[in-house]
Amino acid sequence: MGYCTLSDIRKVMPEQDIIELTDDSTPPSVIDSGNVERAIGDAGELIDGYLRSRYQLPFTPAPAFLNTLAADIAVYRLYARRIRLTPPEGVTERYRGALKLLERIQKGLMSLGGEAPSPQASGPEFTGPERVFTKESLEDY
Residue 13: how many CB atoms within 10 A of its CB? Predict the structure, then answer.
C-alpha cells in the first residue's frame, strides 16, 4: 500500500533531484513515474511489515503520520537505485529515524492514534473444558 504520492516526495526534495534519481536516460530529463511508484510501494511494504503484527491492515483511512514516514523511506529508496551515489546525510538520518519510529510503534511504545489493534496484538487466548477441580472443591484437602 502506498502511504505517499509523487507530490509528497516533491515537497521534500527538488524536482531536478527526482528526475536525476528516476530517469535512466542520458541526460535525465523527466521523472520516471514507474521508478517513483516502485519506491513508494517499497516504502509501503516496509511500513506494513512493521505494523502488520500490531494493527489490522489496510488502514482506512491511513494515519497522516505514515505519509511523512513513507516519503522519507521512498526518497531513501530512490537514492538506493543509484549504487554509486551515496545519499546525503539528511536523507539517511530521516530514513533511520523513520525506521526507529516504526520499531517504537511495532513494540507498542508509540501509537498511531484511534485505530483499534488487531486481535493478534492483544495476546494469545486460551480455551478449554470447564475445570473439574476448583479452589473451593479442594479446600478441605
Answer: 18
